[in-house]
């Protein structure tokens, strides 16, 4: 696994828009404020040609122009690390215009983004053997003040932090809008982790012993995107899991548009494709559209498959669309420990 160099003081942060750009409010003002803040902190910034674009369908520009921006930013010498401007809908369409063989040979750079950016994070790891960060997009850094998770994401880029822990509260309803583009996370809901072993809910994880400590190589992202990649030429999962099978895989998964039925179908599809062959544990973020349907809730939607592997299943973690999110290095070796309502993820770069 290749790990990029950390961002050093005075280095250059590059921004690209392989999914949506920051062409509308509140994202434009938040992004501009983030740029100002980074510059005041002593860093240089470099914006790609699509950062403020809005000519594409579900992405910032045409797939050809978005793919060209990816190649230029990754292979150019100006930017030291890269952050995506935002999520979106159709980033998958740019992939045929990205030369992953060339990216695998280029000097690695940290790339950070989530949601639709799974379409780049995941192939970077599985096709290019290059670690990438599943974490906040650029405009989130424009909030005032920074939430602890945003500070954690920046410290991950600079190498100051490789251990992430959950946050006490999460945001059920955002207050960020066109009139308040710099609004911080509106955290009101207490974290309530759920842990399952052998299909049974662990009522007091703090008393459950060492079975709730698990180590493996982090892999995953947004399930909406992953099942779309499955079976295509951008699906390097089987070879990756065989290469790192001795490490075991910690599947880190969350869903955006998928409802509970679609999540269950996605779990079935990934299982049938052999993705879970070397699984050591499952880490699930809060599902954005996880309301129960026909007696199926978000927990049974995944446990129907996950139970078969007799590994720990942690749910409602700070991963994904219901902020805040722990920034995690996909491809890293991670040790996840849980005691009570507290989870810690220690990442090693090996």
Rg, nearest Å: 19 Å
SSE string: EHEHEHEHEHEEEEEEHHEHEHEEEE
Uncertain spans: none
Please count the helical segments: 9
Distance between the termini: 7 Å
Structural category is: alpha/beta
Q: What's the number of extended β-strand segments? A: 17
Helix content: 25-40%
Largest sheet: 9 strands, mixed
Overall pLDDT confidence:
96
Give the neighbour order of strands across the main sheet: 6-17-16-11-12-13-14-9-10
Beta-strand portion reads: 15-25%
Question: Could you characterize the architecture of this molecule?
Answer:
The chain is α/β, with parallel strands linked by helices. It has nine helices and 17 strands. A nine-stranded mixed beta sheet has the order 6-17-16-11-12-13-14-9-10. It has a six-stranded mixed beta sheet with strand order 2-1-3-4-5-15, with helices on both faces. It has a two-stranded antiparallel sheet with strand order 7-8. A hairpin with a 2-residue loop joins strand 9 and strand 10. Helix 8 packs parallel to helix 9. The longest helix is centred in the N-terminal third of the chain and has 14 residues. The model has no long low-confidence stretch (mean pLDDT 96).
What's this, in brief?
The chain is of the alpha/beta class and 350 residues long. The protein has helices at residues 27-40, 63-75, 100-105, 118-126, 148-158, 223-229, 237-243, 260-272, 298-306, and strands at residues 12-16, 44-47, 81-84, 110-113, 132-134, 163-165, 169-171, 187-190, 194-197, 200-201, 213-222, 249-254, 279-285, 313-317, 328-330, 333-339, 342-348. The protein is 25% helix and 23% strand.
């Amino acid at each position: 696994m290749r790990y990029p160099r950390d961002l050093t003081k005075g280095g250059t942060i590059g921004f690209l828009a392989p999914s949506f750009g920051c062409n509308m409010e509140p994202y434009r003002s938040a992004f501009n404020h983030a740029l100002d803040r980074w510059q005041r902190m002593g860093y240089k910034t470099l914006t790609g040609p699509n950062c403020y674009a809005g000519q594409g369908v579900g992405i910032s520009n045409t797939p050809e122009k978005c793919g060209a921006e990816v190649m230029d930013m990754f292979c150019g010498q100006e930017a030291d690390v890269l952050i995506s401007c935002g999520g979106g809908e159709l980033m998958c369409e740019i992939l045929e215009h990205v030369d992953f063989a060339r990216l695998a040979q280029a000097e690695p750079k940290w790339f950070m983004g989530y949601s639709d950016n799974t379409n780049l994070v995941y192939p970077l790891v599985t096709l290019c053997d290059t670690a990438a960060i599943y974490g906040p997009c650029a405009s989130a850094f424009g909030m005032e003040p920074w939430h602890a998770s945003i500070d954690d994401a920046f410290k991950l880029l600079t190498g100051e932090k490789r251990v992430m822990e959950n946050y006490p509260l999460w945001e059920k309803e955002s207050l960020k809008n066109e009139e308040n583009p710099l609004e911080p996370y509106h955290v009101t809901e207490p974290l309530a982790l759920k842990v399952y072993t052998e299909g049974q809910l662990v009522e007091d994880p703090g008393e459950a012993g060492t079975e709730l400590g698990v180590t493996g190589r982090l892999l995953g992202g947004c399930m909406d995107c992953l099942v779309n990649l499955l079976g295509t030429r951008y699906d390097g999962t089987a070879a990756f899991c065989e290469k790192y099978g001795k490490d075991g895989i910690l599947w880190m998964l969350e869903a955006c548009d998928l409802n509970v039925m679609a999540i269950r179908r996605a779990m079935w599809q990934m299982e049938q494709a052999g993705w879970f062959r070397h699984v050591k544990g499952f880490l699930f973020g809060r599902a954005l559209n996880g309301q129960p349907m026909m007696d199926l809730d978000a927990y049974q939607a995944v446990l129907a498959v996950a139970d078969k592997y007799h590994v720990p299943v942690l749910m409602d973690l700070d991963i994904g669309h219901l902020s805040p999110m722990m920034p995690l290095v996909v491809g890293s070796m991670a040790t996840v420990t849980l005691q009570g309502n507290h989870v810690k993820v220690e990442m090693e770069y090996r």
